[in-house]
C-alpha cells in the first residue's frame, strides 16, 4: 500500500528501436502474359513425364472378354478394356455410350419382353453391329505405350475425342499385347493439379474469356426452338428415353435438368440409365426424369456448378480435391443455365491445338465472378 507522501516509482522506458516497416503485400498482376507463361510451363512438365508417372500407387485393372454377355459385364463396371481371348489381342473399350446405343436399339426395334430376354445372352463382341444398325460412328481402335509422354497421350485423347486411353505394352517372349492400365482425362488433369501447383495459381483468367466450355448462344439458328441452344436440356417431366436419344445422337454423357425459368435443378447422366439397366428396369425408359431420379443411388455427389467468371486455376484446384467430370455454368442468384464445361473442354485448352495466347476474347462477359467454384447438392425431386 502506498503512503500519501510517497509516489510510485515509474519504470524507465526502454530506448526505442525503430524497425524498418515491411512493405505492403500486393497480389501478382493478373495479365495474359503470366497466364501464358504458366500454360507453357504445364505443357513442358507433361512433355517431360510419362504415363507411368500418372499411375496411382495402387490400382486394379478390370479387363472384359468379348465373349462375356453385356448384363454380366455391367454388374462389374460401366467402362473397361475389351480383350479378344482367341487372338490374345486388345479389342477396344467398353464405354457407357455403347450401352446407351444398345438401349436405343432395343427400344426402337424390339418389345420389352424380347429386349429383356435378348440382353441376357447379348455378347460384348456384338456391340459394333448395333452401332452400324443405328448409323453411329464406330469408335476408333487406338492405344498408347505407357512410356509415352503425358503430353502425347493427352494429344491422342483430344484427337480421338475419347475420355479414356488404353495403355498397351508387348510381352517380349510371346509378342502378344499386354494391357497395362487406362489413362483417363480426370487422372491426367488431377496429375496437373497436383504437380503444377505454382503454375495453376497463375491461371487466373476466366473460363468464358478463355472460351472453355459450351455456352448458350446469343444468336441461335433461325429454325431453332431450343432457347438454350446448342446445349441439350430436359425438364423433370421429360421422358427418360428422350434423354437417352440425346445421349446417343449427340455423344454426350449428361443433360442439365431445368425448370420453366431455366434454373438448373438437377443433372441426368448416362450412368443413371446404366443403373436402370442393372436393376432390369428396361420399361423405366418410359418414366419421367423426376420418377427416374427417385431410383438414383443415394451416393450421387451432386451437381457441381460454377460461374463463367471463375478462373481455370480455381477449376483445377477443385479437380485436385474431388472427382469432377463436368461443371454446369450458371448465372444470376437463382442459378439460370448459362453453359456447361466438360473435362474434354479443359484438356483441349491446356493441351490442344490452340496456340498459347490465342482463343481469348477481347471483351469481358457481363457476369459476376464468385471467384470460387461452388458445389451444390442436387435437390430432391
TrEMBL record:
CDD domains: CBS_euAMPK_gamma-like_repeat1 (cd04618), CBS_euAMPK_gamma-like_repeat2 (cd04641). GO terms for molecular function: AMP binding; protein kinase binding; protein kinase regulator activity. Residues 10-21 have a biased composition (Basic residues). Residues 1-22 are annotated as: Disordered. Residues 137-200, 225-287, 296-356 form the CBS domain. Pfam families: CBS. PROSITE patterns: CBS (PS51371). GO terms for cellular component: cytoplasm; nucleotide-activated protein kinase complex; nucleus. Keywords: CBS domain, Repeat. InterPro entries: AMPK_gamma/SDS23_families (IPR050511), CBS_dom (IPR000644), CBS_dom_sf (IPR046342). Belongs to the 5'-AMP-activated protein kinase gamma subunit family. This is CBS domain-containing protein. It comes from Scleroderma citrinum Foug A. The lineage of its organism: Eukaryota, Fungi, Dikarya, Basidiomycota, Agaricomycotina.
Amino acid at each position: 500500500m502506498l503512503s500519501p507522501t510517497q509516489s510510485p516509482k515509474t519504470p524507465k522506458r526502454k530506448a526505442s528501436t525503430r524497425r524498418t516497416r515491411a512493405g505492403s503485400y500486393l497480389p501478382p498482376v493478373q495479365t495474359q502474359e503470366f497466364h501464358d507463361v504458366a500454360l507453357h510451363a504445364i505443357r513442358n512438365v507433361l512433355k517431360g513425364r510419362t504415363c507411368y508417372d500418372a499411375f496411382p500407387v495402387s490400382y486394379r485393372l478390370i479387363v472384359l472378354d468379348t465373349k462375356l454377355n453385356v448384363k454380366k459385364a455391367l454388374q462389374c463396371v460401366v467402362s473397361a478394356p475389351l480383350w479378344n481371348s482367341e487372338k490374345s489381342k486388345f479389342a477396344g473399350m467398353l464405354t457407357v455410350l455403347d450401352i446407351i446405343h444398345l438401349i436405343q436399339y432395343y427400344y426402337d426395334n424390339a418389345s420389352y419382353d424380347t429386349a429383356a430376354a435378348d440382353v441376357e445372352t447379348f455378347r460384348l463382341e456384338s456391340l459394333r453391329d448395333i452401332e452400324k444398325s443405328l448409323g453411329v460412328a464406330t469408335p476408333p481402335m487406338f492405344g498408347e505405350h505407357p512410356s509415352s509422354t503425358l503430353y502425347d497421350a493427352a494429344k491422342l485423347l483430344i484427337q480421338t475425342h475419347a475420355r479414356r486411353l488404353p495403355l498397351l505394352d508387348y510381352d517380349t517372349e510371346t509378342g502378344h499385347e499386354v494391357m497395362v492400365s487406362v489413362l483417363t482425362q480426370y487422372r491426367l488433369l488431377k496429375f496437373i493439379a497436383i504437380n503444377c501447383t505454382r503454375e495453376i495459381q497463375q491461371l487466373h483468367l476466366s473460363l468464358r474469356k478463355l472460351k472453355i466450355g459450351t455456352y448458350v448462344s446469343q444468336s441461335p439458328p433461325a429454325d431453332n426452338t431450343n432457347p438454350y441452344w446448342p446445349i441439350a436440356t430436359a425438364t423433370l417431366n421429360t421422358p427418360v428415353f428422350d434423354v437417352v436419344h440425346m445421349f446417343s445422337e449427340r455423344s454426350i454423357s449428361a443433360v442439365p435438368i431445368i425448370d420453366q425459368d431455366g434454373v438448373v435443378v438437377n443433372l441426368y447422366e448416362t450412368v443413371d440409365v446404366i443403373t436402370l439397366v442393372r436393376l432390369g428396369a428396361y420399361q423405366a425408359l418410359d418414366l419421367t426424369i423426376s420418377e427416374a431420379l427417385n431410383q438414383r443411388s443415394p451416393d450421387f455427389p451432386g451437381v457441381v456448378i460454377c460461374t463463367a467468371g471463375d478462373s481455370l486455376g480455381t477449376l483445377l484446384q477443385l479437380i485436385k480435391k474431388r472427382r469432377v467430370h463436368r461443371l454446369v455454368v450458371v448465372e444470376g442468384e437463382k442459378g439460370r443455365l448459362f453453359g456447361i464445361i466438360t473435362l474434354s473442354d479443359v484438356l483441349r485448352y491446356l493441351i490442344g491445338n490452340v496456340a498459347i495466347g490465342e482463343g481469348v476474347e477481347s471483351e469481358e462477359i457481363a457476369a459476376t465472378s464468385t471467384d470460387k467454384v461452388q458445389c451444390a447438392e442436387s435437390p430432391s425431386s
